[in-house]
Amino acid sequence: MRLNVQNKTTLEKSGIVVLENDNRCMLLKKTGINGNRLPNYRSIPIATLDENGEITEGLTSDCPVMNLWYNKDHFLLSCWNWVPGPGPGDFEKEFTDQDELVKFIISYYFGSNEYFEARKKYEEGRENGG
């Protein structure tokens, strides 16, 4: 099971980059796109390839990058930045309904989301010496 065209388009129109192959997908909100962001945060650059296999750009995000694994009858969405973890804001969530999955992703990058807020609170505490 992969994201259907409608849901992939919804994510991309909102400003989320969807990098996928047959088994999984990486989701990120490009740096500078309006929405949620962490103070003084930049993800490691994610390389993308053009149709000739050449690197076109190194995308970065001002939010944590999420990974989505495709399984036969469900999706596993993960955002895990701490080793060994879990740390503030880390999660693994399973979805069987694509529309609910897309709502969650959009809430993480653009709305109110408990996991994003936990990570943001931690980062703000670090920024303020806490």
Verbal overview:
The chain has 130 residues and is an alpha+beta fold. It has three helices and seven strands; from the N terminus they run αβββββββαα. It has a domain at 5-27 and 64-124. Helix 1 (5-14) packs parallel to helix 2. It starts with a helix and ends with a helix.
Characterize this entry briefly:
This protein has 130 residues and is α+β, with helices and mostly antiparallel strands. Helix content is 28%, strand content 27%. It is built from three helices and seven strands, in the order αβββββββαα.
Keywords:
alpha+beta; 130 residues; globular; 5-stranded antiparallel beta sheet
Helix count, DSSP H or I runs of 4 or more residues: 3
Give, in order, the helices and strands: HEEEEEEEHH
Please report the distance between the alpha carbons of the first and last residues. 43 Å
What class would the helix/strand composition place it in? alpha+beta
What level of helicity do the residues show? 25-40%
Shape: globular
The percent range for strand residues is 25-35%
Provide the gyration radius in Å. 15 Å
Low-confidence stretches: none
Largest sheet, in brief, is: 5 strands, antiparallel
Name the strands of the widest sheet in spatial order.
1-2-5-6-7
Count of strand segments: 7
Mean pLDDT: 89
Q: What topology emerges from the helices and strands here?
A:
Elements (H helix, E strand, L loop, with lengths): L4 H10 L1 E5 L3 E6 L16 E4 L5 E5 L6 E5 L4 E5 L11 E5 L2 H13 L3 H14 L3
Antiparallel strand pairs: 1-2, 2-5, 3-4, 5-6, 6-7
